[in-house]
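dude i think i finally got it to work??
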Amino acid sequence: MKTWILFVTLVVLTLVALPEPGRAQAKAAAASLLGARAPDFKLVDLDGGVQSLSDYQGRITVVSFLATKCPISNQYTARIRTLAEDFANKGVAFLAINSNSDESIGMIRAHAEKNGFEFPILKDENSAVADLYGAVRTPEVYVVDSKGILRYHGRIDNSRVAAGVRRSDLREAVNELLAGKDVSVSETKSFGCLIVRAQAAVGKKVGASRPIAESTPNIGLIKPVAYVRQLEETKGKVLVVNFWATWCGPCVAEFPEFVALDGKYRDLGVRFVGISADDVSDLQLKVVPFVKERKVKFDIFIQDVEDPQEMIDVVDKKWGGELPATFVYDRQGKLVFTRFGIIDRDQLIQAIENALKS
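look at this
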């Protein structure tokens, strides 16, 4: 390992949600750090040594939150490794930190060896550094300049699929700093799995509901423009949209709640729609079998976008892209309820009831 290359890759786990106040505080913390001195930290690496951010003062340092089990984070392993290698001879430091409460040192070490990571990986017990930086999901990256000032925060690039990359935001930010320039795009929205913190929210069980009326769901693809059109076409009904994925553990865990609530409200003027973040190529292989196995009666789509930000922008600009995410629209098509993370059944029912009365 080249000791002067530090890739701060904070390895963070899957898709359980922070409680709402915790997530809001994390986002606020991340926003307030840009342009300020990056918080220092001391963490233990996989060899038992102690490393701190201040050890790398004088070098541009990339701090990345990654995960060992998050499918989206794992789609970036080759790209992260390549970035670290490409910038190695330019003195850029790369560090990896695991902030997940349910990932052991052994798991992290095996993951690093499997993926050929040669940069240091640190264990962030109790997600303390993730909290300090306001990190919410994986992958999520931070770039600190040679003076210790945070200059970039957000995604690695615009697409989880390498073939769909149109802008490599992390690479651009580092190149601009190396050239002595200001970072032209200093913040983007990262997308991926939520960091698993010890206080992660737990979903509630759904009570009994009436049998679901016989119905065959539409299963297909949806583009952002079609999402907007759907809002118009559904006016007169309450619309509940759940963004999910077959690889998202919390999404799968809460999915029966939507099936049950669809059965309860289908005949009362409420339409449920599920939009998956699975790859378009997985429609028949994964999504269709998932829907059939769970006897889903509401429409299911896979978002058909090259950049997830395209869908985020038409749904809710406050949404960071985390999954699961649920949105409720009233009869006039106005967004009246949002939930980022596992739903609170009582809150969702209250939102539906209020929307029905509007």
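The domain at 7-194 is CATH 3.40.30.10 (Glutaredoxin).
im so relieved honestly
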